[in-house]
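In the previous chapter we treated chains in isolation. Here, by contrast, the input contains two separate entities that must be folded as one system, with a combined length of 447 residues.
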Amino acid sequence: MRSEVVTWALRRIGERTLNSVERMGFAARFSLAVLAHSPAALRRLQLTLREIYFAGVLSLVIILVSGLFVGMVLALQGYDVLTRYGANESLGILVALSLVRELGPVVAGLLFASRAGSAITAEIGLMKTTEQLSAMEMMAVDPLARVVAPRFFGGVVSMPLLAALFSTLGIFGAYLVGVRLIGIDAGAFWGNMQAAVDFRYDIVNGIVKSVVFGIAVSLIAVFEGYNARPTAEGVSSATTRTVVASSLSILALDFVLTVFMFRGIGV
Amino acid sequence: MNRSTIDLWVGIFVVIGIAAIGFLSLKVGNLTSVSSAPGYHLEASFDNIGGLKMRAPIKAAGVVVGRVERIDLDPQTYQARVSMRIDRGYQFTRDTIASILTSGLLGEVYIGLDVGGDTQMLADGGKIAKTQSAMVLEKLIGQFLFDKAASGPPAPMSGNAAPGAAKPAAAASVAGGATK
């Protein structure tokens, strides 16, 4: 009796382990297959452009509006703290560095995951549920090349542009609040910012971050959609998993990238 | 949604996205002043660099002329060896004095260059011979207390006149410590 319980527990552990290893192996092979089909996405440029439209252009409104508001809030809160130390001229530095290094890529990535990543997963999952993917295979059309690769590349191209727009609108919002509303000197605002923000260390690293987040979010979105259980419930849980997994991986990747990018320069 | 509309919107999206990256590089990151500055290197040794960090600015008459590129300890002399990258176009005389300064009380630490009257200029890889270390506040306070103790027992702290009388003396001996 007792040994049966132990065997049952061990069997459950073994099953869990095998399942997760199998899933990881499938994810790795899937990622390689998507990369192998990337020439197909470039050859069918019209499909990729269509996906840039759905992932990027339709995300513009949410990215621009939230960037503007994040910048304005940063300026208000930053001014409140900085003015205690008589350093309110450094507001430009605070806003620009926090947006370009961290908030731009991370918040744009989170918004992109919930706005575009979930849509990609739901679309591919529903295509799988209604057996459109199987129908394509029957017609000798590879769904990886026709459906998955264009969506992946659409996301990878859109994400850095969206992050840059987010940072730009955030800095513009901070300018509106800091210079126009509060009345910090415009020359000090831009001058201090330009003196403190380095092209190589801050802006290039921010763009690298957004590219990495774009790859992670797009890969998770297409993988979850392609791997969804072909039921209504399966598609809904796959969509949820996309948002949760890509948000967590953005935050974890951000920590790892920050550790490697910003060590040894005195910050 | 027909094809040309999608193309148009994607075109607009890509153009404003690239414009945003350009704005960040040029207006925020001030790329223009960085790229147009292929520099040369100078070295200087300091007894104490205080809070000097990598990428700290190097200023001559308040104008940024370069950045600190590397800081390490000379194993022979136990002095801090600071490698500086100076923008090409700025030349400094061989008797230039490099001193480690702080902008304001809490501001950034930077290296100030005071140009002398020599006719020969420092070349790439040149070494600035005359340097002035960072002022370390704890040492100054210690020196001040030592001077106070050496100059006799402190005045009795009664009445309003005593603190006022002590202040000029304190300022004088801090200034004396700094010039040493």
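Residues 161-180 of chain B have pLDDT under 50 and may be disordered. The helical segments of chain B are 3-28, 31-35, 137-150, 161-179. Compare these points with the single-chain example from earlier in the chapter.
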